[in-house]
Protein 1
Amino acid sequence: MNGGEVRAMKIVNVGTAVVKGNFDWILVKVYTDKGVVGIGEAYWGAGVVDLIHRAKQLIIGEDVTNITKCVERMIRGLSGEGSSSGTAVTAISGIEIALWDCVGKMLGVPLYVLFGGKIRDKVRMYIDCHAGDGYTPESYRKKARNVIEQGWTALKFDIDVPTPYSECQDEGEFWYIPYNRCLSSLEIEYITSIVAAVREEIGKVADLAIDCHWKYSVKDAIKLLRALSQFDLLWVEDPIPPENIDALLEVQKSVSVPIATGENLYRKHGYRELIEKQACRIVTPDIPKMGGLLEARKVFDMADTYYMPVAPHNVSSPVGTIAAAHLCAAMNNFLVMEFHAHDVDWWDDLIVTDARPIIQEGYLHLPDKPGIGVELNEEVLKTHLVEERDFFITV
Ligand code: MG
């Protein structure tokens, strides 16, 4: 490119395809007048696809490099000025990521270059194991051994699971029990024995995080986290419901275990109070949900001013995962990112790339091609569509 030359590339359409993975993966394509096509992904949710198709009407004809302008226009057009309506922000996130892919392809550079350049060539991932085959210490131990043998160096397990002492033994009903039930001493003891079994199995070779899915009251969370403090946990995630930052601050001040939270928050303003009050030790934005790559970068930076690490929540296909990894590679305060598709054996068949598998020994190896650096394998994608007619529809 000659000095001073400005490249222009206009958005002409946006398409979507929804793939049935372990979640519904909402894939997005942004088509341009120069033939360049960007790919992105939005977090699942009712109404997201419809909102993507509404949002695109607001940006067709705009230059792909004007990402902030496109995002602000879509925010105002879908949910009003200053609003951070969750589903609308999620829909916009998918388009935003695809716009960055277009810009990377247009300039011929990988995404990490656009976010300040990479600090690391590979991005550390942790595996979300959920539970064992059952909810016993032995089944958790077996699962932990299994993933350690696969080379993972950071693990997360759910402990908000039915125990022999739970008041509800019906698993279908258990997940709907409100947070304010009483967590008995016997339950705390049982949960502690599960975490003890995992820690004993993995020793110090891997980091261990625990997820509570917003299940407990303040008093029970404090009791439980104090009991778990002996296991040198990487973090305990979402011990109490997400809406009350002061309540979370009380829990964090009462325990030594680092608390991680943030997967339900949107845009930078959604994180301000959490970070400013230091109500947790680790922030967990979901990038294809909370506003996209540039908005997530602002959250990384805000957290960095309080020396708080960021560990992105992630349940995406390879598209959303690798896009997020480009940003993580460029951020000082990146800690580790989630991998949640352990049970989807075709997860990285969904993309075409020179470097396979994308995740090896617990690290995601960043592609160096322009943009996100991978393309979709559309034959594989077609076999996993939620609705066959939805293959990159452009209504
Ligand atoms: Mg979680």
Protein 2
Amino acid sequence: MTILVTGGLGYIGSHTVTELLHNGFEVIIVDDLSNSERFILENIEKITGKKPIFYPFDLKRKELLTQLFDAHQIDGCINFAAFKAVGESQVKPLDYYENNLFSLINILQEFKSRNISNFIFSSSCTVYGQADEMPIDEHTPLKTPESSYGKTKQMGEEILKDFAQAYRKKVSLLRYFNPIGAHPTALLGELPIGIPNNLVPYVTQTASGIREKLNIWGNDYPTEDGTAVRDYIYVVDLARAHVAALKKLMAEQQDTVIDIYNLGTGKGSSVLEVVEAFETANDVKVPYQICERRAGDITIAYANADKAEKELGWKADTSLEEALRTTWEWQKYLESRTQ
Ligand code: NAD
Ligand code: WQD
């Protein structure tokens, strides 16, 4: 079986490609390197002993995508390619709608015209906004996300539901909570460009001295220690969920399938708990200061991931500390590359 993985050199994509190769799938990657680097391809080969076919182009280039589908028999797609910076999406909304939705539609057009099914979409817990009740299961009402980025995820889901219904296709919408960590070999991980927005890359860069202090955005939330709570899921666990979701889709007998899964650990951790876990796991200090709340932040979000466990036989079982240990190893690897 040959799977097209878009954004396959990115953070979650590269880990998923590795898991797909371990599971005997052939992989074709399309990635325009807008938020990734070529050495990741070599590292995937170092880990798996296999080199996926790689096309470095922008998925908005419809003619190149058509040529790819002409050249290969493709059995399914995992679509990671997207812009993902929440703040940037507020100042460049058109770039986000164009990149995240045109790319998606271009691939779906190829699927439609060639009678291919099995499509997995990277969605996000951002589609729930601040949910009224915890934990968040798949029936929790959706709220219009504040950011244009978040809206591209909600619109992407709607496009895929219509696509599945109208053309009798099988799709899986995977709503990730907060992915963290790196590959246990330290050869794959997140490559934050510029000043990181997300918590764990900022913590990591603070521990290594690249940033002076972590700014903790608010300690007056109605949580146990006053800092906001999220569900941090280890990226390799998340990657494994994609393989499970793909195998399930492929085994489905019906023509039309719309699967939706929350992918998280089921456990919430506060910002301060993440800092402490990082310090314990790596025996390093993370200097921090408490600041005002960050605009647009929610108080608390963690998943009920029982549906994924029941239907996919999948569970995120790596501890927060272990995930944070791999992040630190990855940071040391990145620093060794630049020396
Ligand atoms: P990433 O930026 O590391 O990976 C995305 C990859 O897609 C990059 O390698 C980039 O170069 C590529 N890409 C972007 N636009 C492209 C285009 N038009 N054509 C070809 N390649 C293109 O991001 P990630 O963290 O691995 O996220 C993967 C997916 O998961 C994204 O869709 C993101 O929105 C979603 N997601 C991420 C998180 C998170 O916190 N990381 C949470 C929820 C959902
Ligand atoms: C986590 C917590 C911050 C940085 C974002 C997107 C969401 C999804 C995941 C893709 C919050 C606090 C952070 C810092 C801090 N992405 N924090 N100091 O906000 O849950 O979600 O990434 O779909 O759509 O919005 O993740 O890592 O930015 O923040 O105190 O320097 O850490 O306030 O409480 P978030 P995050």
